[in-house]
Design a protein that fits this description.
This protein is α+β, with helices and mostly antiparallel strands. 78% of the residues lie in helices and 8% in strands. Helix 2 packs antiparallel against helix 3.
């Protein structure tokens, strides 16, 4: 079409008829081309992000698959450890049960042993009493022997005195001569009796010494037996105390063994639950691994679609560039209508937008009061449209509604994101299809651009 119009101009030397209609058509095509260009740029950026995401996802999938495989292996090893622990706990539980039974048996046998010790203590006490009674009798025998010895000493003294008297009588009888002969016979008889008494005393002294030695031996044996009986009683008391303490310890040991068995049973149940949990985790992890493999296959298909979308985006970019070239050629053929631009009004609007943005913070962008302030600015300056963007290019607010989903590729947005106020050249608005100029200013908070405000001024 451009070629035919150019030939008509070259032949006739005049502008084509219906120039206003052609200019309106050109404006509509420019709007469409602008939207196509913005959509293509946004699509290209989205495709690039999808490609980057797909690449990161692929590497993440590989790492996740490797980690899942390692996790499954670790779960298998953990399951083996849990099974070994279950076997160990089972053996420990059996040992605890044997210890508890033996402790109960020992606890049952201790009372009989204590009773035997008590019987032995009673027997030893009786023996000690008998020994004490025997020692008393031996002491009485010793006293009797001492008395007999005293009598024996008295008889010996009398015998010695009698022998002396018999000797004196014999001497006196010899002095008396014939008259003392009878007295001498009596003196000899008395001396003979004294000698017999001495012999008897000598024999009785030997027998008495033997008897005394035997009685002293009995007394020593009794003393030793008494001491041994006391030691036996003390030992039996110690044995009784030992058995009492042992019985208490055995009872405590039996109680502890029972408690340990109960705790072991509880731990065994917990460990059994843990083993079942590990098995379930194994099944779940294997299922998750299978799901991950399926997801990797689906993501591979998605990456193929992304590659196809990349090609579509490339073709669309080429088409948009071709359309832009055709439009530029057509604009060079069709003269533009003269536009009157009030630069002072544009600078005043830019200054007022700067002042409004300087009062805003990142948390203020979503507030209804900000939207109301923008609507008041639109009415005050008779603006064609006004809007508010976040730092990612998405729209927070636009009146009338924006024809784009994201303005990240628009020159007025990139300038604002760089921290600069922007006034565009005249162009055809994609919203109203009227010639306009766009003014945009950044919203800065803590030395960081958090958004921007833009407005279209019709010309």
């Amino acid at each position: 079409m451009w070629t035919l119009l150019r030939r008509h101009r070259d032949v006739s030397g005049e502008p084509p008829a219906h120039l206003p209609l052609i200019q309106e058509l050109l404006a509509a095509i420019c709007v469409t081309a602008d939207r196509l260009d913005a959509t293509t740029a946004f699509l290209s950026q989205s495709v690039r992000e999808l490609v980057g995401l797909a690449e990161r996802t692929e590497s993440t999938e590989v790492r996740t698959c490797q980690r899942a495989t390692l996790a499954v292996d670790e779960l298998d090893r953990s399951a083996a450890h849990v099974q070994a622990a279950l076997k160990t706990f089972s053996d420990a539980q059996s040992s605890m049960e044997r210890i508890a039974r033996r402790a109960e048996e020992l606890e049952d046998r201790v009372p009989a042993l204590v009773e035997r010790v008590r019987e032995a203590m009673q027997t030893v006490r009786k023996l000690s009493a008998a020994i004490e009674e025997n020692n008393a009798r031996v002491a009485e025998m010793v006293a009797d022997l001492d008395r007999i010895r005293a009598v024996h000493e008295a008889i010996r003294s009398i015998s010695e005195q009698t022998s002396l008297i018999a000797l004196n009588a014999t001497i006196e009888a010899a002095h008396a001569g014939h008259h003392g002969r009878g007295f001498a016979v009596i003196a000899d008889e008395v001396r003979r009796l004294a000698d017999q008494a001495k012999d008897a005393l000598r024999h009785s002294s030997n027998n008495f010494a033997d008897i005394r030695a035997q009685v002293d031996g009995l007394a020593a044996i009794g003393a030793e037996a008494q001491s041994a009986s006391h030691l036996g009683v003390a030992a039996l008391h110690a044995i009784n105390d030992f058995f009492a303490a042992t019985r208490q310890e055995v009872a405590e040991m039996a109680s502890d063994a029972q408690q340990a068995r109960t705790d072991a049973e509880r731990a065994f149940r917990h460990l059994d639950d843990a083993e079942r949990g590990v098995r379930q985790a194994q099944v779940s992890m294997r299922d998750a691994t299978d799901d991950l493999v399926s997801l990797m296959a689906e993501n591979a298909a998605t990456r193929q679609q992304v590659d196809a979308l990349t090609q579509v985006s490339s073709h669309l970019r080429e088409t948009a560039d071709e359309l832009a070239g055709e439009i530029a050629e057509f604009q060079a053929f069709v003269p533009e209508a003269a536009a009157t631009v009030d630069t002072e009004s544009l600078e005043a609007l830019k200054g007022e937008l700067k002042a409004a943005c300087s009062r805003l913070h990142a948390a203020d962008l979503e507030r209804a009061s900000v939207k109301q302030m923008l609507l008041e600015l639109k009415a005050k300056h008779s603006l064609g449209s006004i809007w508010l963007n976040r730092a990612d290019g998405s729209f927070v607010f636009s009146d009338p509604p924006a024809g784009l989903l994201n303005a990240s590729q628009r020159p007025w947005f990139t300038a604002a994101l760089a921290g600069e106020a922007y006034i565009s050249a005249p162009y055809v608005s994609a919203q109203s299809r009227r010639r306009c100029i766009t003014v945009s200013v950044p919203i800065t908070h803590d030395q960081k651009v958090v958004g921007c405000v833009g407005a279209d001024v019709y010309i």
